[in-house]
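It is worth pausing here to work through a concrete case rather than discussing structure prediction in the abstract. The textbook approach is simple: state the sequence, then state the predicted structure, then interpret. We follow exactly that order.
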Amino acid sequence: MLVVENLYAGYGASKVLTGASLEVAQGRIVALIGANGAGKTTTMRAISGMLKPDKGRVLLDGKPVQGQDASRIARLGLAHAPEGRKVFGPLSTEDNLLLGAYSRLPLFFGFRARSIHDLERVYDLFPLLRERRLQAAGTLSGGEQQMLAIGRALMANPKVMLLDEPSMGLAPVIVQEVFNTIRRLKADGITLLLVEQFAKSALEVSDYAYVMERGRIVAEGAPAELLKDKRVLAAYLG
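Step two, the predicted structure:
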């Protein structure tokens, strides 16, 4: 479903990714773990088109998308819930969700009517968002904004979803809610690439995982195998 081959990318003279490769099969949750500065977020940005890669390929459903605009890649079926949530603060919760569906619905007539089913799906997953649907997104708590960021990505009905550091800045009890949500997405068959600072929690919800160091994949395997790997344990799991 999503294949990344020998990806190089960076920011100006700073080369962050130096040949990263990974794969996310349909209906699977794959974790990408590593230390701060390893290149995880840069990988996500290069996949989604927020950053143009210097070299390598990104295949979405068998079609190359590397170098295309983020809006075009979104229309092809990839949704990115970025690090830091990035909600539109002055807009209502519901308007934020509706923006997530822009790439696949008519721009004018029928937009809201054709979004109702998807809105209900998100509200069933996050009942608090239903209660806050008219509230400005910028006034939501951090946990509620993370729910909104995930819900907004789901509104696109994506083939593949990228979820970058969903627990960042959240209280432990809210982090647990976030991972419970990821488990529900897994049960629904969502195809997901997850970057997460809590490596052990990420491995527990994933079907497969990659370990990144200095812009390259240095280890990969089933989570149960990585949880026994002494190098991974020492570096990322304490």
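Step three, interpretation. The chain is about 35% helix and 25% strand. The two ends are 33 Å apart (CA to CA).
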